[in-house]
Specification:
The structure holds 2 protein chains of 2 kinds. Chain A is an all-alpha fold. Chain A contains 9 helices and no strands. Chain B has a two-stranded antiparallel sheet with strand order 1-2. The radius of gyration of chain B is 33 Å and the shape is elongated. Classes of the chains: A mainly alpha, B mainly alpha.
Chain lengths: 183, 266
């Protein structure tokens, strides 16, 4: 274990050196925010949830067993935060800022193409929000968080083939939802 | 009969396309999944081309969904709450100690401790022990008369706490705190000794001790606290000493980065 890897730092935190949580926060807060944003479509909720994850890591630091990668544990905590979030509020509050983030206009696209593209992105974002939680989670973890299926399986606690099936069915569902949103 | 045949054909196509999509989903696991991979699956299942292509396109399109920038507020909120948690935990620790000891008891322990310390100094007057520190620093002769010899962590912390309140400390008290800072095995006790010494950091001798103590720390947390204590004095000698230590590579890498930032801010 190198003296700057996540597990080493988390062990330090577990042993009372809380200053190392700052380094872990620096390393992971953006990707974790992205994870929640993909799941909820709401930036401010995602910020709260991201912070909540780090507070829980701190609160439950004694339960860190250093048996797998730190990120597996972090995402396991993130899933709990996400599930609690969904339980506590209705879906509407999570999808309230479904407007797309403004991006710099691309030189290569003319105005009309740009509008069409934006509209399609908007549809895709709405469709993604409407996807079932398990399928959405599998897609987000694979597509955006860069996990392999066996890693997602480990975090989620199901088999690797179940994850692959969730992604396949999720993509089918997403296509249908995209058509529904468009129409 | 015709209808049955047609149903069977449809089911067979559906089964094949499920199989094809399963293969495609397997490819999605690979970040480098590209059009060549898609083409291979399409060649294998030409009847499912449309389904495969639309699924693949949608998967690629997901890349284009932007994520907003995280607000600075979220980061600063976290940092300040972290500071608060750290402070609360430290206070809780001290409160636990004070829960065990009333003021009288603390004074009694402090008196016993100081008496013991005096005796220890006399008995061990000529005894020195070599303490291995680091290869780069080498071996340092050090008097081991710290708080650790006979007392538990709680007693050691309580004793330091009472010494901190001393308005007219002697050189022996500085020496004892310094020995604790450099030799105690417990990080919290060392931090507490540092805090006590910091109260007297207007004395040149104490500043010298703080500078010297850095090289004896194996805990980055104590090392960082020490360096920050020195830098907070904004004393030229201390600043110079810290810079030299950074240059000579005697400081833990993570600590070094943070200290360099502090120096730049000064």
């Amino acid at each position: 274990m190198k003296n700057n890897d996540d597990n080493y730092l988390m062990n330090k935190v577990k042993n009372g050196d809380l200053s190392h949580m700052g380094i872990l926060f620096e390393r992971h807060h953006k990707v974790l925010f992205g994870y929640f944003y993909r799941l909820t479509g709401n930036a401010s909720k995602s910020e709260d949830m991201m912070q909540n994850v780090f507070f829980r890591l701190l609160k439950y630091r004694n339960t860190f067993r250093n048996e797998g990668k730190f990120v597996y544990w972090m995402y396991a905590v993130a899933r709990n935060v996400s599930n609690d979030g969904f339980r506590k509020s209705d879906l509407l509050s999570f999808t309230e800022d479904l407007t797309l983030v403004e991006e710099e206009p691309s030189d290569s696209l003319n105005r009309e193409e740009e509008l069409v593209q934006k509209e399609r992105q908007q549809h895709l974002k709405i469709a993604l929000q409407q996807l079932g939680p398990e399928q959405k989670e599998a897609i987000v973890m694979s597509k955006y968080q860069g996990f392999k299926y066996h890693e997602i399986a480990k975090i989620v606690g199901v088999s690797e083939s179940a994850i692959k099936a969730r992604i396949r069915r999720g993509m089918m569902e997403l296509k249908k939802l995209m058509n529904d949103v468009k129409s | 009969m015709m209808s049955n045949h047609s149903d069977m054909e449809t089911n067979e196509n559906k089964r094949k396309c499920d199989e094809a999509l399963d293969q495609l989903a397997q490819l999605f696991e690979n970040e480098t999944c590209g059009k060549e991979d898609l083409k291979r699956v399409v060649d294998q299942y030409p009847g499912c081309k449309e389904e495969l292509v639309t699924t693949y396109s949608l998967w690629m399109e997901l890349d284009e969904l932007p994520v907003p920038e995280i607000s600075d507020k979220a980061v600063t909120n976290f940092s300040s709450t972290m500071e608060q948690i750290r402070a609360d935990e430290n206070n809780q620790h001290l409160n636990n100690i004070s829960g065990y000891f009333s003021l009288n008891q603390v004074m009694k322990w402090a008196a016993i401790f100081i008496l013991g310390l005096g005796l220890g100094l006399i008995i061990n007057h000529n005894k020195t022990q070599t303490v291995a520190v680091t290869n780069s620093v080498g071996a340092v002769e050090s008097n081991q008369t710290g708080l650790e010899a006979t007392n538990t962590t709680v007693v050691r912390l309580a004793a330091i706490h009472s010494l901190k309140e001393n308005t007219d400390p002697s050189l022996e008290i500085y020496e004892m705190l310094y020995t604790t800072l450099t030799n105690d095995t417990n990080d919290n006790v060392r931090l507490s000794a540092l805090e006590a010494l910091q109260n007297f950091s207007d004395k040149t001798r104490v500043r010298e001790m703080l500078i010297k103590a850095i090289m004896f720390q194996d805990s980055p947390m104590v090392q960082l606290s020490l360096l920050e204590a020195l830098l907070s004095e904004q004393n030229d000698t201390a600043l110079q000493a810290v810079k030299e230590m950074l240059k000579e590579g005697l400081i833990d890498m993570e600590v070094k980065i943070e200290v360099e930032e502090t120096i730049n801010n000064i």
